[in-house]
Write a structure and sequence with these properties.
Two copies of one chain form a homodimer. In chain A, 48% of the residues lie in helices and 14% in strands. Chain A has 390 residues and is of the alpha/beta class. Chain A has two domains: 169 residues, Rossmann fold; 205 residues, Dehydroquinate synthase-like, alpha domain, CATH 1.20.1090. The radius of gyration of chain A is 21 Å and the shape is globular. Chains A and B meet through β1, α8 and α9 of A and β1, α8 and α9 of B.
C-alpha cells in the first residue's frame, strides 16, 4: 500500500428530513448565495420553492445561474463568475447532479482570479482559494458532492477536461434519496453505470496490496448490481435510491483509491465520446468498459479480473483463471445490457472513420500522451479499443 | 435506511514517510503541546525522539503526561487537565493506541471546564468546546483516531464507561503501519478482534435496508480474517499491518452505522469484564461475541447470521438457514481460537459466582437498564450469555 492522505471534511446530511438545516449551514459561510442549477427539474419536484422559502425566512439573498446541461459548459461558469464578481457573492449553492456541482466548483475557484475560468481547467492557472460551496444532490452518479474534482466542456475548443482543487471541496452536501425517485429509468441506468465505472477505475490495478480497498470496491459494485435494476423498475423504492446514492459518494471520495496507483483509463476514453456526441457519460462508460477489460486481459491481469468475477458476480471457481476472467467480463457486459445500455458505439451514432481522430485526441488531451492505468495504453491501443467497441 | 449525518473532518496521513508534516499541522492550532503517551514503547521504537526533535526544530514547546495504561484511568486525565490549565497549553498530541487517544480526548474537553473530568463521562456536564487534538497511532484496534468516542475507567467507582463529544474529534491523525510492527502477537490478535467486534456491532441489525453498509462491513471482516493471522506470524509484513490499520479506522468512523440503528451489545458486556479483571478489551470481546450470537439466534435473526457466514466465511449455501447460521458462529469462534484467544471466561480467571453481579452492573451502567441491540437484552439475558461464555 502506498502512502496517502485522506481528507473528506464535507458534512453530509443524508435522508428525507434534513433540509431545514440548510440556512444554518449556509450562514456559517455567507449570506449572499449564487444558486446554480440545471433545467426545470428542481422546480418540478418542488425543491426550488422549498429552498427559496428557506432563503426568504432566513434573510439569505440569492442570485441564479440556471440551465446547466449534462457535460456542463464553460459559458455557464463564465456567467456565474460574472455575477459573483458583480454582486460580491460569498457562497455557492449547487442544486442538481454532477454537472451542476462541477459548474459550481469552477465558479467557486475562478471567481477570485482575473484570468478566464478555462485557464484553471487547462492548468494555466492554479487556484489559490475558492468561495465556499454547498450542494443539494438530486442524482446518484458522479460523486462530485464529496470530492475536489470537476469536468467541464469547452465547445469552442472541442475539449472535455477534468480538473481538481482542494478549494473546490464542498463544505456540506444534502443528500435526499427521494429527489432521485424522479430520475427516469434511462438516467438511473446511466448513473448506476457511472458509479460502477468510478469503482472499477479504482479497483482494476495490480499488486498494490490494497486488499481492504478492493473489498470495499466490490461492496459498492454489488450494491449497484443489486439496486440498479430495482430502482429502474420501481422508481419510488427508497431503499434502492438510498443505497445507490450512498454508493455514488463512496465510489469516488478517496476511499477506494487510497494507497493505490489508479490512473483512470475508461474515463479519458469516454470523454472523447461525450465531447463529440453529447451522449450520457455513464452510457459511454458502460459501452467501453467491457471492451477495455477484454483488451486488457493477459496473463498479468487475468487473476484480478477473475477475482472481480468471483467476488462481484459470484462466478464459481473451477475453470482456468483466463476462462473465469472471460466469464466475468461477459457477466459485466450482460449486466449493462440488462440495464438497457447499448452494446456498441455504432448504436449511439458513431462512425468508424472518426475513431482514429478520437483516439488521437484522447491521448493528446493528457499531460503525457498515454494512459498509464491497469494496462499501459497509447493512441493505437485506444484506437483498437474504440474499434472493438464499434 | 434511516436519516443520518456523516462527518469525519480528521485529516489522515497514512503511510511510512509523513511525520515531517507534523509540525505544520500542529502549528495550525497552537504552539504549546501536551504530549500524551503510554509506557515506554514509543521511546523504544524511536518515535518519541523523532517527535521531540521535530518540536525543537520548529519551536514547539511541550509538556508530558505519560504512563497511560490499557483501560485508561481518570487519574491520568486529571493530571493532564492540571498541566493544561497551569501551562496554558493549546494543543493535545496523543501518541499511542486507543487508550492514549481516549485519555487525550477527555483532557481536551475537560480542560475548559471547572468541574471534574469524570462529570463529562457520567453526563453531568456536557462539553461545549475542546482543545484541538492530533494523534499518532501506534496500534490498530480502537479506531479512536477518527471518531468522537472515548472510554475511561474510574477505579474508585469500579466503572468503565464510554462517552462522546463532537469536540473530541481529532484534527489530524498520522497512521504509520510500521509502528504497529512492534505490536506483539497477543496484542495483534486482540486488536484484530477489537476491529472485528466494532464491525459486527454495526453489522448485526435487522431490516434496516443498509445493504451497502453491510457489504462494507463484510469487506472489513474479510480483511481482518485474511491479515490478522499474517500479521501475527510475520510481524513485519507491511501489507498486513497497513490493511489492519486502515480497517480499524473504517470499522468505527461512522460509515458502517450510517443509516442504521446499532445499539452495541457486546461492548457493554465486555466493559464489565475489563473493568473487573483488566483483561485486554479485544480478548474479552472475542470471547463473548460467539456466545452472544448463539444466544441471539432465532427465526428472526438466522438469516442475517447465515448471510454473515456466506459473505464473510464463504460458507456454502445448502442447508437450512438455521444450520448455516450455526456454522457461521462456529467459524467465527474457530477463527478467534486460531488467533490464540481463550474460549471461555473461566480461562481468564473469572469465577461463576461473580457473573450475576457483572450482569447487574452491565445494565445498570446504562441510561436505561437494557441493551436494545440485535436482540433486546435485559439483566437476565446478559447473565445467561455470561454463563454460556463461562
Amino acid at each position: 500500500m502506498k502512502d496517502f492522505t485522506f481528507n473528506i471534511p464535507t458534512k453530509i446530511y443524508f435522508g428525507k428530513d434534513n433540509l431545514d438545516k440548510l440556512p444554518e449551514e449556509i450562514k456559517k459561510y455567507g449570506k449572499k448565495v449564487l444558486l446554480v442549477y440545471g433545467k426545470n427539474s428542481i422546480k418540478k419536484i418542488g425543491l426550488y420553492d422549498e429552498i427559496v422559502e428557506l432563503f426568504k425566512k432566513n434573510d439569505i439573498k440569492y442570485w441564479e445561474v440556471s440551465g446547466v446541461v449534462p457535460n456542463p459548459r464553460i459559458d455557464k461558469v463564465r456567467k456565474g463568475v460574472e455575477i459573483v464578481k458583480k454582486e460580491k457573492i460569498d457562497f455557492i449553492l449547487a442544486v442538481g447532479g454532477g454537472s451542476t456541482i462541477d459548474t459550481a466548483k469552477l465558479i467557486a475557484v475562478a471567481s477570485p482570479i482575473e484570468e478566464d475560468p478555462w485557464d484553471i481547467v487547462i492548468r494555466k492557472v492554479t487556484p489559490k482559494k475558492g468561495l465556499p460551496i454547498g450542494t443539494i444532490l438530486t442524482l446518484s452518479a458522479t460523486g462530485s458532492e464529496t470530492n475536489t474534482s470537476s469536468v467541464i466542456t469547452n465547445e469552442e475548443t472541442g475539449q472535455k477536461l477534468g480538473w481538481a482543487s482542494e478549494y473546490a471541496m464542498p463544505k456540506f452536501s444534502f443528500m435526499n434519496p427521494e429527489y432521485t425517485t424522479f430520475v427516469n429509468s434511462y438516467h438511473t441506468a446511466a448513473g448506476t453505470s457511472d458509479i460502477m465505472s468510478h469503482t472499477m477505475e479504482n479497483y482494476f490495478s495490480l499488486n498494490d496490496g490494497a486488499y481492504l480497498q478492493d473489498r470495499m470496491a466490490e461492496a459498492i459494485l454489488k450494491t449497484c448490481i443489486y439496486y440498479g435494476p430495482i430502482a429502474m423498475k420501481d422508481p419510488d423504492n427508497y431503499e434502492a435510491r438510498a443505497n445507490l446514492m450512498w454508493a455514488g459518494t463512496w465510489a469516488i471520495n478517496g476511499l477506494l483509491d487510497s494507497g493505490k496507483d489508479t490512473a483512470w483509463s475508461v474515463h479519458p476514453m469516454e470523454h472523447e465520446l461525450s465531447a463529440k456526441r453529447d451522449i450520457t457519460h455513464g452510457v459511454g462508460l458502460a459501452i467501453l468498459t467491457p471492451y477495455w477489460l477484454e483488451y486488457s486481459l493477459s496473463e498479468k491481469t487475468e487473476e484480478k479480473i477473475a477475482d472481480f468475477g468471483y467476488n462481484v458476480f459470484d462466478i464459481e471457481k473451477g475453470n482456468s483463471k483466463r476462462e473465469d476472467a472471460e466469464e466475468a467480463i461477459k457477466a459485466l457486459r450482460e449486466f449493462f445490457i440488462s440495464l438497457g445500455i447499448p452494446k456498441r458505439l455504432r448504436d449511439v451514432d458513431f462512425k468508424e472513420d472518426e475513431l482514429r481522430d478520437m483516439a488521437k485526441n484522447c491521448v493528446e488531451n493528457r499531460i503525457k500522451p498515454e494512459i498509464n492505468g491497469f494496462i499501459h495504453l497509447e493512441e493505437e491501443d485506444v484506437y483498437q479499443i474504440y474499434k472493438m467497441a464499434f
